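Review box. Two proteins, two foldings.
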Amino acid sequence: MSAIDDFAKFAINGEGTYQQGVCGSNSLLWWAAKDALSPGAADKETLLAPLRSEPLKNQMRNLCSGVSDSLVDFRVTGIAATLDQVLSKSKGWDGAVEAFNKSLPESPVPSQYKPESKATDSITDLYGPVPIDKAGGWMLYDMLWHLKFSRPGNPLSEMTGIDAREETPLLLADAGGEVVKFVVELLPGPAGLVTPDWWPMGLMVFPQPGSDPSLQAKFPDFLASTQRTLTAYLGKPSHRLRWRLEPWGSWDSWDSKQHLPASLTGRSCEAAVECAARAVLKKLQKPKGPILSQKYAITATVEPDGKLGIIEGLPHKCEAAQRKGLTKVLVAKDQPDLPEIRGLRVQPVAMVAEAYSKLKKLNETLEPYLGHLDELAAQWDYRTTPT
């Protein structure tokens, strides 16, 4: 049975699981689209039917402990409408642009944004003119970019159109702890425009806490926190920026065990997000190779003055980091009850700027010596040392 048939069964009859059906860059939807867009594909209608069905949208609602993601309908509609137009070769993008434009909790359009009527490049040569006078048009453009240049399991098989890219591990406390990649990219386009890269993230749920203070405390908004952190750090930008999550590791099929979580909440991403933004802007100066180490991670909130804040779920996050081969996790200086895990160094840090310097790949060769110096400093009691 093809991936298209499998996705149709999931979308219309609910067979299979949400995790396998739509979540992440190894999602069944991506594999189904790949099959449908292959030369000579004869069963495009089998994929078009579920994309146009209401049951698919219904499965995306109210998936996280009763806290709904009111914006998921727009993401579902935008993704489904884009694939519908590509498969049917209609090239009528208004529905997708409108849906994507409403897919974020806050307007991502910077004040200096200068509307353009359409994009003209290899993407439009294939799919026709893409309206980019709104932020939703750029999210549509990015989805078409992936359909042309990417493939499931390797979202960046080609670097066409990307000026700079950086990634860093992101620690999650869900399901006993997990590690994913947070990726940021700088691309040509409206300076300061920050948008999620919806297609490789599948149809993840980002629960919106609404106005209830108890729910706001329990389900902080990951999506809004990420958008605000990136927008705030860009300052006077020269590029547009898109971000996404990718599974940690590699996979060969949509049902691989490497996947993204079905839903995501919290502000503990903020420090990692800002450090990734710092690194990708530095890449514009053309340094060779990645700036941030893939063996180090940070989990903390960030206050307006740059001070790191404490988070929950640290033991699970550190256990996941150790399982994935990470060697150091940075946390806020005030973080209580630091876990002790063999092979993993948990290091408190006060400010996000200091954390950024400690996350650099350059530190990997110095780490054994730095760790030894920290141990000596901890043993040295300045209060009793004679002068």
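Next protein.
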Amino acid sequence: MGLRPDSLEGTLNRTLRWALLTVLAALVVVVAYALSHLAEGPTRLVMSAGSKGGEYYDFARALAQLAATHGAGFTIEVRESGGAEANNRALAEGTADLALVQSDTVLTPSGRAVAGLFPEVLHVVAQRDAGIRTPADLLGKRIALMPAGSGTNAAFLRVMDHYGFATTDLTTVELPAQDAEQALLSNRVDAMVRVIALGNRGMRELLKHEDLTLVRIDQAAAIQLFAPAMERTLIPRGALSGRPAVPPEDIEALGVRAILVARENVDDAVIEALTRLLFDSRNELLALDEKTALMIDGAALRRFGMPLHDGAEVYYDRDEPAFLVQYAEAIALGLSVAALVLSGAWQANRWLAARRKNRGDEYNQQLLDCVESLRAARSPEEVARIESELLVIFRAVVDDLDNDRFQSESLPSFTMIWDLAKDLIARRRAEFAANGGK
């Protein structure tokens, strides 16, 4: 027995009414949700950032300024802390949303990596006559460490553990950086330790004192085997001063990388916006903090073993085409064909790497030519002209870096020569000013 036309019409009308009511209810929920978020305003993120005047704190302030300028949908409140380890604890305790840590930090389970920032080097500075040539010579010596909570102390103790020394075997005192420098200069300690970016101005000034010397980490390669988040590196001859050359020869060292991390429960959309701000506004960030020229993205960041925040993953995977998942089997077949050309691709990659290295060498030579021109300059106008040439070179390096035409490994030497040129500009201007502009 079928439905009569009027019965069918009634059924349809009731269905339509219920559908309309459902749609209206959903719209009310969506509008209410949107209005509530609009009323909340931008998300406030608390960043634990190290001590005032330190490189972590300076970076955090630069990032906060950039977020405010761009109206990125979030604001950053920068808070002072004891250093990388203290920042990690703040993340674990929930008193910070963002933190700056070292790549060798054992990240709290609630922490997720966002971006790799700038490389840092473990500097061990000793009295020249204290008989300290390697870390093994530190036994029985007075050592100034950074304040409790600093990543410097954890990195240093990890190195000393490799040499067979426990914390109780060492005579240490924890001091703020400036106090540690004064204690070293006044012979109240035999050595001081600090993890800081290579070429840091304060470290360059300290090592101008001829009675101080850098200690080489003679087993850096072995230490890296058991602590892969630490990297064997070299401090090049003249990296901290060109005349006289400090160090006087290349010395082995260990490096880490500053990492921006976030709590796992920070909204994915906020972290995606933060990551986008970091990389899409890189040139503006460079103007505020030059060290950010050395930032690395998700692919390079994964080698440190830190899990990425889902919001950062969204940004890093933004260019992944959707068909990669849909046609996974077809792509696998294509990969088998691509194996036939791997040899040629490998050779091409070697050629490109050599080309990028050559480009880095060319920029370094251009900087050195500018340094020589500055030394020979005879007027303030000539100094200004050379400074303009330096800025042109700097912009070209940033552009080449963004377009993968320049090896990041060449940047430490470029940065060292760049800092030397900037110091020389200031010195020459002061000389001309003292001589009435002549």
